[in-house]
Amino acid sequence: MQRVTNCILKSGNDVLTLQKPSRGWWVAPGGKMEQGESVRDSVVREFREETGLQLKDPSLRGVFTILIEQDRRIINEWMLFTFFAESFAGEMLTESPEGILAWKKTSDIQDLPMAEGDYQIFEHVLKHDKTVYGTFKYTEDFKLLFYRIEAEGEAPEEFHTGS
């Protein structure tokens, strides 16, 4: 199982996003954890490597299980630890090794091309001060089949395609 960290960095009404070249999808910057690394150390390192910026006081806002299904069998699984920060230091890279960096208005996030579940992650992380937990199940080509997100003390939100 792969472990991945990312961070939604908000500055005013903007969020720093990264457009990945493989699908053209926008994501929160982050990446794979290294062996023996804590989730917090991973998000700080990965964010700095991809953006040039040093996160200050990132807080864990989401823990998600991501499943890839083929013929009703799970063929891949990873854990995603999503952080939130509003404070940073340094200068943003003019060119990221991972894609195109851009500040986007929070109101425009839902209009960006991205994995379907990422819309839910951005929405919950930007609207909740507490950690949310969830599971997302996709096909091999990243069609969302199911998700369930729950914030402590709130009713869970679910989506099923019926497939």
Describe the structure.
The protein has two helices and twelve strands, in the order E-E-E-E-H-E-E-E-E-E-H-E-E-E. The longest helix has 13 residues, at 39-51. The protein is α+β, with helices and mostly antiparallel strands. It is globular, with a radius of gyration of 15 Å. The strands form two sheets. Strands 1, 2, 3, 4, 6, 7, 9, 10, 11 and 12 form a ten-stranded mixed beta sheet that branches. It has a two-stranded antiparallel sheet with strand order 5-8. The chain has one domain: Alpha-Beta Complex (Nucleoside Triphosphate Pyrophosphohydrolase). A hairpin with a 5-residue loop joins strand 11 and strand 12.
**What is the 3D form?**
globular
Quaternary structure classification = single chain
Question: What is the average per-residue confidence, as pLDDT, rounded to a whole number?
Answer: 95
CATH superfamily grouping: Nucleoside Triphosphate Pyrophosphohydrolase
CATH C-level = Alpha Beta
CATH fold annotation: Nucleoside Triphosphate Pyrophosphohydrolase
Q: How many structural domains?
A: 1
Query: Kindly, what is the distance between the CA atoms of the first and last residues, rounded to a whole number of angstroms?
Result: 25 Å
The share of residues in helices is 10-25%
Radius of gyration: 15 Å
Tally of alpha and pi helices: 2
Based on the coordinates given, report the CATH architecture: Alpha-Beta Complex
* Helix/sheet category: alpha+beta
Tell me the major beta sheet.
10 strands, mixed
User: Helix and strand succession?
Assistant: EEEEHEEEEEHEEE
